[in-house]
Amino acid sequence: MEKIKFAVVGAGHGGKAMAAHLAIKGFPVKLYNRTYSKIEPIVKMHGIEIEGEVNGFGRLEYVSDNIEEVIKDTDVIMVVVPAFAHGAIAERCAPYLKDGQTVILNPGRTAGALEFLNILKERGNYNKVTIAEAQTFIYASRGMGPASVKIFRIKQAIPVGAIPAIKTDAVIDLINEAFPEFISATSVIETSFNNIGAVFHPAITILNASRIEATYGNFQFYIEGVTQSVAKILEAVDRERVGVAHALKCKNVMTALDWLSMAYNIFEDNLFDAIHNNPGYAGIDAPKTINNRYITEDVPMSLVPISEFGKIFGVKTKATDSLIDMANIIFKVDFRQSGRNLKRLGLENLGLEQIRNIFIEGELKK
Questions:
Q1: Side-chain half-sphere of 337: how many Cα atoms within 13 Å?
Q2: Which of 4, 59, 200, 265 has the most CB atoms within 10 Å of its CB?
Q3: Environment class of 283 (CB within 10 Å of its CB; exposed 0-12, middle 13-18, buried 19+)
Q4: Cα atoms in the Cβ-side hemisphere of radius 13 Å centred on 360
Q5: Count H helices, E strands: the chain?
Q6: For residues 135 and 185, what is the distance between their CA atoms, to the nearest angstrom?
Q7: CB 99, CB 129: distance < 8 Å
Q8: What is the DSSP letter of 208?
Q9: Which of 125, 11, 146 is nearest to 65 (CA)?
Q10: For 53-81, what is each residue's pLDDT tens digit?
Q11: What pLDDT, on the 0 to 100 scale, is given for residue 365?
């Protein structure tokens, strides 16, 4: 049986890990990055050295800054870029995606697959392309050099949802040979709203902004950054996220405590104790600057859509809105304007059932 042909879009830490790992498993892999200088060493080596949980050399079929050539004649396009770049990648792919291809966002954050699909339609691509998103990224990895990467951990049981939801099982069947860790989610509502990073990352960063700036991140992000007061705000953001998911009739939404229990086997009745009793968080340093993805990605691509859906469904999101407002002030931008707002998602002036239908069926306005 012929091997599935993969394209990996993005040659950062995660993209290099995914491309090399797939190649070592014997799959034909092509790699795209918009900046050629970043991939030139990979081009010269014809692949990527990998160490850690996987060791070896992943020989790649093709490496280029030409996205048309990279995604041409491939079965699955694995998008491994920050969520704020999903829109730009969708625009670049729109002229070239063909019937039968599958695009998977790794991960989608909140409503990533919906944004990607909406942009394809806006650019006139109505081909039978399946758009899916993973709930979280499968690897904990770090680039060790221009053409090398280390995988510290391969996560287990990664939920994946597709638009339309009826195609999810087919996506899982397609990619399980390469990634047996991927499992079916009920829909992209589940993968979008079980985005626990939306709860932890922006709040801890913003509420520790002065400490990050004064020490260049020289403290433990979770253990020292989460005090009793910070934990109470995390719990408020978490309640709002869960409330919006319930309004969307998502039955499989997890609380942050549920997630910590599942991921780390930690059982507590509040986030402060759960975080401080989690050995997996010990030793994780804070970012060296507040200008990092915990804000620039998680605020516009996670908190903004949660807030936007809250407004539609009458769910109060005061804590979430406060964090967005503070991020706007600090960065002197309008993340509500640049983020995943209702207009960007193609959901303006729609009601609950219409929005659920779009999430599940993929029937977007033309």
A1: 4
A2: 200
A3: exposed
A4: 10
A5: 19, 12
A6: 9
A7: yes
A8: T
A9: 11
A10: 999 999 999 999 999 999 999 999 999 99
A11: 42
Q: Which of 190, 169, 175, 205 is nearest to 241 (CA)?
A: 190
Domain boundary among 162, 191, 220: 191
Tell me: pLDDT of 366 over 50.
no
The reply to whether 202 and 235 lie within a common domain is yes
Does residue 28 contact residue 2 with C-beta atoms inside 8 Å?
A: no
Same domain, 218 and 324: yes
Q: Give the domain extent around 28.
A: 6-191
Q: What is the model's pLDDT at position 157?
A: 87
Q: Domain tally for the chain?
A: 2
- Report pTM: 0.92
Contact present, 181 and 207 (Cβ < 8 Å): no
Q: And the tokens for 180?
A: 């047996």
Which residue reads 């403290």 in tokens?
A: 219
Distance (Å, whole) CA 192 – CA 83? 12
Query: What's the pLDDT tens digit per position in 76-128?
Result: 999 999 999 999 999 999 999 999 999 999 999 999 999 999 999 999 999 99
Whole-angstrom CA distances from 316 to 46, 237, 320, 337, 359 are 52, 10, 9, 20, 22
List helix spans (H) across the chain.
Answer: 13-24, 36-45, 67-71, 86-93, 112-122, 168-175, 188-193, 197-207, 209-215, 228-247, 256-264, 271-276, 293-296, 298, 304-313, 318-331, 335-338, 342-345, 352-361
**HSE-up (13 A, CA, CB side) for residue 50:** 28
Give the residue numbers annotated as catalytic, written as ranges.
201, 298
Q: Is the pLDDT of residue 349 over 80?
A: yes
Q: Is 153 helix (H, G, I), strand (E, B) or coil?
A: strand
Pairing of strands 6-9, 76-79: parallel
Q: Quick one: which of 109, 104, 78 has its CA closest to 14?
A: 78
pLDDT tens figures, 169-217: 999 999 999 999 999 999 999 999 999 999 999 999 999 999 999 999 9
Q: pLDDT confidence of 364, banded at 50, 70, 90?
A: very low
The C-alpha angle with vertex 66 and arms to 64 and 68, in degrees rounded to 5, equals 125
Give yes or no: residues 50 and 108 share one domain. yes
